[in-house]
Amino acid sequence: MISQIYEDVSDYREAGADQGGERVEQLVEIYKSIDYDRSHNDLPRSQETGARNKPPASRAFLAALALLCLLLLVVIIVGFYQLSITNEKLHTLISNLTNQNLIRTPPCAEGWSLFQQHCYYKSTEGKNWTASREECSRRKADLVIISSKEEQKFVRKLNGAGDSWIGLQRPRGKKTSQKDSWRWVDESHLMLTFWRVDEDINSKIKRLVHINSNGTWTPSEDGPKQWICEGVQEANM
User: Fold this and answer.
1) Helix or strand run (H / E) with residue 122
2) Which helix (H) or strand (E) segment is 118 a member of?
C-alpha cells in the first residue's frame, strides 16, 4: 500500500509543478490516515489473541482439583505401604516370641498353674493316693514329679497349708533297706529328696508320700488327701 502511494506521488510530481504541491499534500494526508487505521486496528487483535490464550477460571480450578486428588492418592498409597510394613513386623515379632516360649495362648487350662512349660493342678477335695492318680490321668496328667529345687519351691507354694499327694511311692515288693526303693510314677529313681527332718522313710506300712503344710515330704499310709497333678502344657488340659 505504501509503495503504491509513493508511485502515485512520483506520477503527480511528473504531471506538473502546478498541481504537484497540492496533490502531494493530499497523498501524504491519505497515507497518514491509512497508517493510523492499521495501527489502531492491530491493537485489539493482539489483545483478543491474549484473551484467547489466557485459561478461564474454571480450567484453573479443575487443574488445582486434579492436583489435590493426585496428592491425596499418593498419601493413601504411602499410608497403606507403611501399615503393611508395620503389620508384617508385628507378625514377625509375635512369631519370634511364640517360638521362644515367651507367649502362650492360653498358658494352661483354667484352674491350672504354669511353671517351666508344665501345668500344675491342686485339688480342692480329698481322695486316696490311687484315686488321686486316676483323677490326674483323667485330666491328661499324673501326680507331680519333683525333679529340682526350683520345682520343689513352686509345688510348696502351690500346696499352701495342707497335705497333698505327690507322685512318689515305694512299690510293693521293694525292700525298705534298699536305698533306691522309692520310685516316681514314671518309674524314675529318686535323685533329690526333701524329707521332713527325722522322718522314718523305712516304715513298712508308710509307702506313699505327700507334701505337708511345711513343704517337706512325709511317707504315710493311704487315705484321703488333696493331690497335685502335673502335665505338659501342650496337653491343653
Assistant:
1) strand 118-122
2) strand 118-122
- What integer is the mean pLDDT of 49-57? 57
C-alpha cell at 12: 503527480
Can you name the CATH fold of 113-235? Answer: Mannose-Binding Protein A; Chain A (3.10.100)
193-202 average pLDDT score:
88
Max CA separation in the chain (angstroms): 171
Name the residue ranges covered by the structural domains of the chain: 2-53, 113-235
- State percent of the chain over pLDDT 90: 42
Helix (H, G, I), strand (E, B) or coil at 2: helix
Residue 175 cell numbers, joined: 525292700
Strand 142-143 versus strand 164-169 pairing type? unpaired
Give the rounded distance of the alpha carbon of 79 from its chain centre: 16
Task: Catalogue the long-range contacts made by 98-103 (C-beta closer than 8 Å, 24 or more residues apart).
Answer: none
Give the Cβ contact number of residue 129 at 10 Å.
24
Cell numbers that stand for 88 in this block: 508384617
For residue 122, give the nearest of 168, 160, 169 by alpha carbon: 160
Q: How confident is the model at residue 89 (pLDDT cuts 50, 70, 90)?
A: confident
pTM of the predicted protein model: 0.55
